[in-house]
Amino acid sequence: MENNHNNNHLQPEESRFLSGPRSRFKELLFTFRVQYSFIRAFRKMHFIGPCVTVFGSARFDKTNPFYKKAEQVGAALANMGFTVMTGGGPGIMEAANKGAYEAGGYSVGCNIILPFEQKPNPYLHKWINIRYFFVRKFLLIKYSYAFVVMPGGMGTLDELFESITLIQTKMIQNFPVVIFGSEYHKELCEHIRIMAENESISPKDMELLFVTDSVEEMAEHIKTHAIERFKLVKKPQRPSWLFGEE
Asked: Would you identify the family this protein belongs to, as annotated (predicted)?
């Protein structure tokens, strides 16, 4: 069968990996690069938590009402003592980071390296540039005790359902998932209800989602289902010289 991937040399590394089997040496080399990405990220992000991750579109500018709402979300989370984590890019991600940053909280980002340039937004105290989407998605979940899903596109829905699936299958604990924007997400919530009616998910899975348009309701829900449930307390950092930490 003819190989149609003639432009492999122009593709990002993750895309080349997903394009089919390669030589044993290249496959092995890829695993080492992935391992290095994880280790570098773990060292960089070790002291950032506890976090709440905010998902949302990279395409909304500062005039968009959802951008302004995401700023309020970021500020509210920071005032509750959380580090606000996002994908580190523009749009909703920038707005949530900005809200936390300007409220005096801590703001971090996991920025993806794409063929077209995506720079980390200017409202980050700490960020890491990541080559692989699956590494980035892992990090956005690993350090967080709640997830806030703002209006977004395919990537946002991917992150939403990844989080819910991990909770549903008990791979992570029952952290609160807040869907922000009832009108924007109306058809999505209806489809989830249809899945429950047709028994492709359990009716109890509907309880994993909290839908709201209120920053205050979001904060109260996260306070009850994250801070109080998991008895979250911000612990002092204890860096180790052995690992080159400051």
From this structure: Belongs to the LOG family.
CA–CA dist 55, 156 (Å, integer): 6
Which of 203, 180, 208 is CA-nearest to residue 77?
180
- Taking the C-alpha atoms of residue 166 and residue 202, their distance in angstroms, rounded to an integer, is 15
Please give the structure tokens belonging to residue 149. Answer: 């899903």
Give me the half-sphere count of Cα atoms (radius 13 Å) on the Cβ side of residue 121: 27
Listed as own residue / partner, the contacts of 235-241 with beta carbons closer than 8 Å and 24 or more positions apart are 237/47, 239/47
> Whole-model pTM?
0.91
pLDDT tens-place string over residues 103-159: 999 999 999 988 765 789 999 999 999 999 999 999 999 999 999 999 999 999 999
